[in-house]
Amino acid sequence: MHKKLYCLGLVTAWALAIFTGCQKSNQETKAPTTSPQSPDPGLTVARLHWLGKKRIAAESNATNFMAIWNLPESARLEAQTLDKLATAPWRFLSPTPFSSKAPTALLRPLLDDMVQEEAYLEVRGSTNLPGALVLAIRLDAIRAALWRTNLPAILASLGREARTPATEVATSDFRLQTADFSFALSRCGEWTLLSLTKLKIQTAEFGLLEELRSRIQRAEAPFAARATNYWLETDLDLRSLGLQNLPFAPENLPRLTLSVTGDGPDVRTRGELTFPAPLPIELEAWNIPTNLVHDPLIGFMAMRGIRPWLAAGKFWLEQRLGTPPNQAFFWVQDGLPAFHFFAAPSGEASNQLRVVSEFLLKNVNPLIALFPNTTNAPMGAFEQAPDSSLLRWRGLPYIAPNLDLTSVGGNLFITGGLFRNTLTNRPAPAELFQQFQTDTNLVFYDWETTQPCEFGLIQMFQAGRLVFGRARLSLTNNAALPWLVAISPKLGNAGTSLRRVDANRLTFSRTSTLGLTGLEISLLADWLESPAFPKGLFTLEAAPTPLLSVPTPLPVAKP
After folding, report:
1. pLDDT (tens digit, 9 = 90+) per residue, 30-80?
2. Residue 385 and residue 140: Cα distance in Å, rounded?
3. 434 domain-assigned
4. Which of 222, 238, 265 is the last residue of a domain?
5. Which domain holds residue 391?
């Protein structure tokens, strides 16, 4: 799993460094005040260290992880993903439309190296110097020669000629300089170094490259030695990477550090989020709706401190919904995929449900009528149950979404789900709630048995595509669905927690089979299967399927 995330992170960071820069906009950028020979080291906005598949495979704690990675279905999905990435530069960067004549075969083996071999990426930027990126990858002489041969040809095919200026130092194999950036390939010890600096540098490299070369000469690696062989390490300043410009991105974006490694049969993920401004989190005592949560459970999530984010939301402000809930709980029962439920305690629950119900009946029902289902009839509509606060969506196959009010221990909760919560009266295990309800610093808790959760999500995603006339994943025409079916029986429990350390800092911890939850795995598969990958999702990008007269069975059987 992490090989795909790593490749995407690398390509994304590279593109950000080239086209958006790691500093302020040109209007805000000051002229350089230091000489090229002694540059300001700038701000490190991203570091990423990938141990490489070869070294991970040799780890004693990676046996279970590698057994999943080495499945034939995993190999097929990996190959498909790298094939798509091999065409991405010509699809997104070339001045001419993508053609089958593009030399994608030159890039494809380099992407294999990025999966197989150890690599390190560092990105820097400052207010008075151009952004800089250096990728260091550990290669033997044969693979290094392939990079030295293929990269100039790749750049030339993108309309950018690779050349070596007369003033070039002997340590560089080639350098490309344009009015916008400088690109160079060089070798130091066992490492091949690709440097990219935004804006033209005439005679001297930005200091980052020389610093990495010095590290390799001193310690035979471009990064500090670790006592633990982490499979993946990242350190990202999300704001300096320009992510604050994305839709819905909060202003108070943090710096993120994350590490992933093996722990027996599991994958351990640890992280820290450091925010530039204090977080307005209110950690009041947990108010768990224990009477509503019933066994057999396969997943449970609890969160608190959410009031400031709800209150700042556009919908909440426009609808004048009053004081938002500060806690929310979600759980999943084994059985049908639709057995997903939630509850949120609120002192203004009655008025909030009334306003939301009126909005759905007045504004959403007319939109639903525009989308016929597989029987070419309207997909039902929201309706108010007689003499009740219950709001339900009638007319959908497989699911029955609903909202209601429920009193638990004298507290009123907004409740709902994809089905009515009347399945069993078996209480949830008391140990489940004892794990976190006395933890005074806990902000978020999530536990799941990933195998049944993942199987249910396969069904739910397919049903959603069916209902809304989107293309369904196929066991024969797609790589993602066979992969999901193959790995599902091999997934164990996943536990995640998020804690507040101080006003500006949160810590993240997870133990799981692949480093991801069932929902994250499903979304990853949907993304990797996108026809426009790395853009979009399969569900949104694939051509819609013509409506059928009779709903077809979902193409997967429970393991």
Report:
1. 333 332 233 334 588 899 999 999 999 999 999 999 999 999 999 999 999
2. 70
3. no
4. 265
5. 284-429
